[in-house]
Amino acid sequence: MAVGEPRYVWKIDPGANTIKVGRRNDLETRRFEVETVQFVAGERPDGCPGSFRAEVQIRHRGRVAAATVRPVGSGRWEVEADEPVWAAAPGQAAVFYRGEVVLGGGRITRAED
After folding, report:
1. What is the dihedral of CA 69, 39, 63, 71, to 10 degrees?
2. Into how many domains does the chain fold?
3. Most exposed of 4, 13, 81, 102 (fewest Cβ within 10 Å)?
4. CA separation for the pair 107, 93 (Å, rounded)
5. At 105, which CATH number?
């Protein structure tokens, strides 16, 4: 079936044995969760107990986006980018920067639907 533009896998549901596909902009999101976060300095930036600002990159050559990173409990963190990022898929790495300095990062567990 021709659809006139490229389609990308958007969601896999093994339980229902289905794959959802969409357009490129369907894979854009501003929020996603990250787990197993490790900080290079061994602690959160600036020793802050709550959220912090950072730049986040989710793909090797992905665009770096300004974001707020906040703990949401049970070792998980929510990342809210100022502008949409493309294809924040579970299992991919999310790396936090401040300028050229790597702050840390973790694995994406869930992206906003």
Report:
1. -20
2. 1
3. 4
4. 5
5. 2.40.30.10
